[in-house]
Amino acid sequence: MRADRLIATLLLMQARGKVTAAELAAELEVSVATARRDLDALSIAGVPVYAERGRGGGWRLLGGARTDLSGLSSGEMRALFLLLGPAASQSPDASSALRKLVRALPESFRAQAQVAAQAVHVDPARWGADPVPVDDLRERLGAAITQRRAVRIDYTGRSGPPGQRLVHPWGLIDKAGRWYLIAGTPAGVRTYRLDRIHAATTTQETFQGPQDLDLGAQWQAVSAHVHARRSAARAQVVAPAGLLEALRANLGPQHVEVTGDDASGGIRLEVTADTVEMLARQLCGWTPEVEVLGPSQVQAELGRRGRALTQRYGPA
């Protein structure tokens, strides 16, 4: 993409004072001829760049001119790269542009920019109910991640009373609008839901994060663990093909898998949940359209619920 090259070229010239076409070509991974064309294009467009000829020459911004992007404060740079990082994980072009922009920043900003660009991972599949807004907390945690500062949080987990924890924040996960923090702790890597963090205080304690952190790979491991826990109970069912999308939307696409066709004209599915009780509760509302073939524990729980409904709401 030419636009990102031109931006990177301006930032490099501002950061270094003077650059040669060969240096630009090496930094931006293009040919020397392409670098020269880009410099000429900036000059023709009215950007105050000029060439110094002869030994030791190069290209400069006239009078030390600065680009609009050059005036980024530390906070603005952090916000920009926190925003660009997820896009880079989805697009090779965006990833290439991000690398060039990082190299073009002043040296004092590069380390934080690289951390910020890797600090957010996006997973579009939803777990459970609609998310709770956590914008302010997310911004403060993003700052702690890029500054490599430990955070003291008040957190309520899935079970047990609230507790205070000192964590080393590594990265943030956007799970279909619900945000999670991946952090290092004395007990190992842990994941925290932001809407369960009641208070967060950034400390003066610094930490050394993991080298070459792959936040996507870390999240895949977390997701695999959660899916295994939430899929401990399984049932084989037969349903009309027209109900497949409704079942996936209601139960979650990762919990409804097509296993084949049925002689009745419907489709066979494997449906999962974390417990037998939860599985029966979810399937109960889909009868009689959905028939549960097994296992017997799920059938027995459905029968118990059916008898309770008949006893409460059946004829006297």
What does this structure look like?
The chain has 316 residues and is α+β, with helices and mostly antiparallel strands. The protein folds into 3 domains: 1-117, Winged helix-like DNA-binding domain superfamily/Winged helix DNA-binding domain (Arc Repressor Mutant, subunit A), CATH 1.10.10; 122-213, SH3 type barrels (Roll), CATH 2.30.30; 231-313, Alpha-Beta Plaits. The protein has helices at 2-16, 21-28, 32-44, 74-90, 92-104, 107-117, 135-147, 215-230, 244-251, 276-284, 296-313; strands spanning 18-19, 49-52, 58-61, 120-123, 149-155, 163-175, 178-185, 188-193, 197-206, 233-239, 256-261, 267-273, 291-294. Strands 4, 5, 6, 7, 8 and 9 form a 6-stranded mixed β-sheet that branches. A hairpin with a 2-residue loop joins strand 6 (163-175) and strand 7 (178-185). Helix 2 packs across helix 3 (32-44), helix 4 packs antiparallel against helix 5 and helix 10 crosses helix 11 (296-313).
